[in-house]
Amino acid sequence: MTATAVAHPNIALVKYWGKADADLALPATGSVSMGLDVFPTTTSVTLTDRREARDTFTLNGRVVDDGPLVRVERFLDLVRGMAGSDARAAVVSENTVPTGAGLASSASGFAALAVAAAAAYGLDLSERDLSRLARRGSGSATRSIPGGVSVWHAGDDAGSFAETVPAPPMAMVVVTINDGPKEIGSREAMRRTIATSPFYPAWVSSTTETVGDMLAACAAGDFTRIGELTESNALRMHATIEGAFPPIRYLTSRSVAVFDAVVAMRADGIEAYATADAGPNVVVLCRPEDRARVAGALDGFGAVIESGTGPAARLLRSEDP
Ligand code: DP6
């Protein structure tokens, strides 16, 4: 049995930073994101007939046999547990995020893997249950199952899933900046933030409130409010992370220059708002009609990529040869 699925990355408007339960991958707060329509990840899962000792994982034509394979195997163990199967699998994934673009590939990666693996192992899961499953691979993957703008609810295992919410038309411009120091991964950085940043409790309480405000702004179609909340929440996340010990700093001087350029754009009457994840790249939220102008204005800061709002993850085919 082979099943193939596609999923896209998402960029959080209200960030997920910190787990309430690491085993179940339950977040400390809710979060809200916009799915992108660029950089799909296409993944196929083929069940192997023989009882192989291990799964295999091929990413962009290269056989992976270290950390990422262990993460894929742990994820497949969950799927096998749900399906009552002990069949091993061959996972082949094509990730179109250009190398060095700095967009996390774990969101689209685990969303595509969740959809393909569920189908290959014969599980008929709802979008909600696929989202809960993707969560166990990587938190942000929860939000790459539904399309458009989505909220990922904080809650217990049954209640922590993502779903699409009504929102006005929006676009994003990704500005790629590759001059940062070697990054510390988000998993480890979250742990250190929780353990050592005195600002973390305030991050949790303020973000919980911001999720509610963001959902209200989305429902009202209030793009200006969505943008203001997005930029504010991103800066609060980075302030919280910078408050860890030893400190973690993801934004470089070039990242900050893009934030400044976005402020200047607003002074010129273009409604644009900046956000950034666990790295130096900056993503700029704007209205769809402004995206080419925003991309043009930010061209000098790094490679720019424009994106509209993306589709839900979906099964492309499932065949039993
Ligand atoms: C800064 O989803 O990569 O992008 O759950 O440990 O796999 P794990 O973390 P991950 O963290 C994403 C953090 C972020 C904010 C966000 O996407 O909400």
From TrEMBL:
Q: Which UniProt keywords are given for this protein, alphabetically ordered?
A: Lyase
What are the EC numbers?
4.1.1.33
- The broad enzyme category this protein falls into is lyase
| Protein name (Swiss-Prot/TrEMBL) | Diphosphomevalonate decarboxylase
Organism equals Curtobacterium aetherium
Q: Which gene encodes it?
A: mvaD
